[in-house]
Amino acid sequence: MKYLLAGLMLCLCSASALSAQDLIAPVSKLSVKTGLLNLIDPFVPSANIMAEYRLSPHFTVQGEFGVLLPASAGRFIEVQSMRGIRLRPAVRYYTEKSGYSSFFELLGLRRNAYLTARSTFQVQPLQGGSFNQLVTFRGRYRKSGLFLNVGSRNRLGKNWFVEFASGLGVIYRTEHYLDIPIGAEFVDESFLARSFWAPVEPLSEVLPSFMFYVNVGYNLIR
After folding, report:
1. Does residue 9 fall inside a structural domain?
2. 73, β-bridge pairs
3. What CATH number should be reported for the domain holding residue 113?
4. Could you give the CA distance from residue 175 to residue 196 in angstroms, rounded to a whole number?
5. Cα–Cα distance between 170 and 182 in angstroms, integer?
6. How far is residue 209's CA from residue 44's CA, in Å, rounded to a whole number?
7. If you placed Cys at 107, which of 19, 90, 124, 197 could pair as Cys (CB 3.0 to 4.6 Å)?
8. Which residues contact residue 189 at a Cβ distance below 8 angstroms, ignoring those fewer than 6 apart?
9. 3 within some domain
């Protein structure tokens, strides 16, 4: 009886190990990826492509290039044009030599954006009084950062995989705006505008930041 129980336990453990192993994406020499959440970013959406190259059984390097897309309503009243890029280099350490169960990642961020937008400002002339005026202005937005992330990578098929990661970091951002009348005040009663954006004075600040992303990828060279 005890041998039967021991055999049953061994079968159960083997099945669990095989099921877990089936989910692990094997280490590939070269893979390409894209981020699913970047397209629906409510503030600065982007379309991006990434490439990850294996240096050793545990270490990989990754490069990401993204093109910024027009921002959605809420951050700007009306964005007439927006252009910019996003770069995110990274180094990863995978805890599994033969597969991707989890990883630690050091990720850098650089984002430059240039826009032309239109919004309502309260203008106060020198002769007194005030009135609202629809103003077309230009802006430059720059952001740099460094993050430490923890994530996992799982198999979707023979060569496809999905990965999730989150972490904490620090960012330095600057904002500078042109063509806004002197003394004008930004007018927008929406919660997003009051909380995240007020294009009047130049901005320069260092802030803690949180990151979460979901990538889908394909193994090019195994």
Report:
1. no
2. 76
3. 2.40.160
4. 12
5. 33
6. 15
7. 90
8. none
9. no
CA distances in angstroms from 12 to 4, 7, 17, 110, 154, listed in the order given: 12, 9, 9, 48, 22
Q: What pLDDT score does 71 carry?
A: 65
**What length is written for the chain?**
222
Using CA atoms, how far residue 63 sits from 33, 73, 178, in Å, is 10, 30, 33
**Phi first, then psi: what are they for 195, rounded to 5°?**
-85, -30
DSSP bridge pairs for 122: 132, 185
Question: How buried is residue 20: exposed, middle or buried, by Cβ count under 10 Å (0-12/13-18/19+)?
Answer: exposed
Residue 36 DSSP code: S
Ordered mean pLDDT values, 10 residues apiece, the chain (222 residues): 39 38 63 89 84 92 91 58 91 75 93 84 67 81 95 87 95 86 66 49 86 93 83
| 15, part of any domain | no
The token pair at 206 is 């260092």
**Which single residue is written with the structure tokens 């002769």?**
127
Q: What is the pLDDT of residue 166?
A: 96
Tokens of residue 67, six digits: 């093109």
In a domain, 20, yes or no: no
Tell me the torsion sign for CA atoms 19, 22, 27, 30. negative
DSSP structure string for 78-140: EEEEEEEEEE--EEEEES-SSSBS-EEEEEEEEEEEEEEEEEEEEE--TTS--EEEEEEEEEE
Distance, in Å, from the CA atom of 133 to the CA atom of 141, rounded to the nearest integer, reads 23
Amino acid at 121: F
